[in-house]
Amino acid sequence: MTTEQTLKRELLLAFHILDLAGQNSGIAGHLTARRPGGDEFWCHSHGLGFEEVRAADLNCADLDLVRRTGSGRIGPSLAIHAAIYRARPDVACIVHTHDAAAVALTATGEELLPLYQSALLFADDITTHRDYDGVVETAESGRALAAALGPRRALLLANHGTLVAGASIREAVHATIMLAEACRIQIQAMAAAPGRPLHAVDASTARDAKGFLLSPRVLALRWDYYVRRVLAAKPFLATELAALGDG
Predict the structure, then answer these.
(1) Torsions phi, psi of 200, nearest 5?
(2) Helix, coil or strand: residue 62
(3) Which of 4, 29, 96, 209 is deepest in the core (most CB within 10 A)?
(4) What is d(CA 86, CA 232) in angstroms, rounded to the nearest whole number?
């Protein structure tokens, strides 16, 4: 199997893993993976929800959002992804969803705290972008979000959702799921102890845990678990994966 086949198979799985994890934002979510070589990325056809994506719906576009491969429309909101890929050679995958818990947390004005062990991969690696100005579909707005993200792993987008960048599809997908859980846990903790400080993991422990959580071995175990779950829940994916090459 070629590197390109592997990337497309993982991307297809990623759409459905995120759907199963409750991260489907209807037609408003987007997920892309940088093509080996750096100046193009794979995405799904504009207007589809994550649960609708099939092998034939994968398209390749350049950083000017010109379709190079496939037959679907390239979503204008992917200007965000193009800007981040231009600014961050280390980023191989980007996920944007409208997670309800993340929206709720940003509406309180609070920042994400290191409360949840499995979300410590965000230690010193996330911030909240509060300059939400509506729909993001221009190169200028994409550059603004890329600048807000900076070198970090993730942004909470106030009143909007989440933006996660990863060094691989596996990392970005897992981080998106963990970010949503971390936001839910913080909202629950705040409701259980209104007006009282929350007990967070100390910075040193969080940094040590982050290295472990992002290790290739741990990410591989997490990914394999997600794949087992999604293939059991959506058996049609076996046929779709076969269409992308032997695996």
Answers:
(1) -105, 160
(2) strand
(3) 96
(4) 37
What CATH number matches the domain at 3-243, 3.90.180.10, 3.40.225.10, 3.40.50.10440, 3.90.1150.10?
Answer: 3.40.225.10
Report domain extents, the chain: 3-243
pTM tops 0.90:
yes
Q: Report pLDDT digits (tens) over 192-240.
A: 999 899 999 999 999 999 999 999 999 999 999 999 999 999 999 999 9
CA distances from 46 to 9, 53, 58, 82, 148 (A): 19, 10, 10, 15, 25
CB neighbours of residue 145 within 10 Å = 21
CA distance 194 to 53: 42
